[in-house]
Amino acid sequence: MFVLVTGCFNVLHPGHIRLFKFARTLGQKLVVAVESDRLAGAAGHISQHLRLEGVRSCVLVDDAFIFEEPISELIYKLRPCFVVKGREYEKKFNPEAEVLESYGGRLVFSSGEIQFSSADLIRFEVSEKASLPIKLPLSYMARHGIDVEKLLSIVNSFKKLNVLTVGDLIVDDYITCEPLGMSQEDPTLVVTPIDRERFLGGAGIVAAHAQGLGAKCSLISVVGQDSAKEFCTKTLEQEGVNYDLLVDTTRTTTVKERFRSQGKTLLRVSHLQQSSISIELQEKLIKKAMTLLVGCDLLLFSDFNYGVLPQALVDKLIEVARENKIIIAADSQTSSQVGDVSRFRGVDLLMPTEREARVSLQSREEGLVVLAEQLRQKADGRNILLKLGADGVLIHAPDYKSDGWLTDQVDALNKFPKDVAGAGDSMLVGSALALAAGSSIWEAACVGSIVAAVQVGRIGNLPVNASLLNQIIDQ
Q1: pTM of the full predicted structure?
Q2: pLDDT tens-place string over residues 159-196
Q3: Are residues 98 and 143 in the same domain?
């Protein structure tokens, strides 16, 4: 016994979710028929395939498809037990009623209390993207002689770069939930999932950012033989990233679930393994990397300490990259007390958070400038970008005039972030690409900060593209 809902579905909004939830109470299966572009006409603001994909992403829907025939013919062919329509159709002519009555089906009207217009939501999203709350760091730019034309020139030069990304590949699942209240048995928050959306994360999104910003990027990583791996390969192909994913049948592809409600993350659940990959896989990875490093301009390490980057492998790749004068940048996430960003020795750019730097140095009390200098010395690094969250980023870089070190700061450029999960990945890519293009660390930090500001203005880890970046810079 199944229930049928039909419609255009430009954007899945709360009104649709309420309708779907009600429809599911009437039968064992919810089927949604999406109007084709021809049937939708001017009401179809986006293509039928994107509208169908949006409906299929909803966990309440068991099956969805595009239909072309008149609605009465569709219903007679499928013969659902119930057809559910919004309350606003109750006093209108409904061609479904007659055919349902002919075989004993029922037409039910039940909209949610809140109504939204898909067209209005689309217009809001478009206008919001066009006016992201990002302001350029003008005082910082003035201190370092940076102007808009220089920034645009740097971004335009990304298309000349060849990039290799190596590291932990992650899949990020965002599960949108509706809060139901507090459990009466114990003090536990009770929610029900209403939507799930999947994003590329870790080294995958780092590579996708680089490709989106104009560079030609390759990715090497290790995955399990599972559905998450299939998602990664499909998404990397869509983003135009050249990839080589080594399959390890003893491990799973890392998946991180974020349960969110009303714009806030309630809980994170990580499905992962932290043991190092085998010697055999390390040798295969190094062999593939050696081939791709020929003619490469930038080597990016995206390290989450999940075992894809054992120390011997890191040391070998850094050695080869330095011999070939390739710019090297690394980001190493610290989980609990596990992780040491200083193990990436001799690289051109290290990008830890303050906490990651303190864990690496076992330091709790030093000021930020001292902390950055101690990390630079321990890692024998060249430039440190110390990520400070809502306070922006601290730049610690060599002063070639005095053989000393200079420090400055770029404040966070987006004061109204929606999702900070991908800030570090995007800043790493933007800053590293700028360095590889020949810019100074001050220019690189500025570009990276702008890229991060764009990234945190969206939900989910999505690649930032050069066109949008240029739009923000030249606003």
Answers
A1: 0.74
A2: 999 999 999 999 999 998 888 888 878 888 888 888 88
A3: no
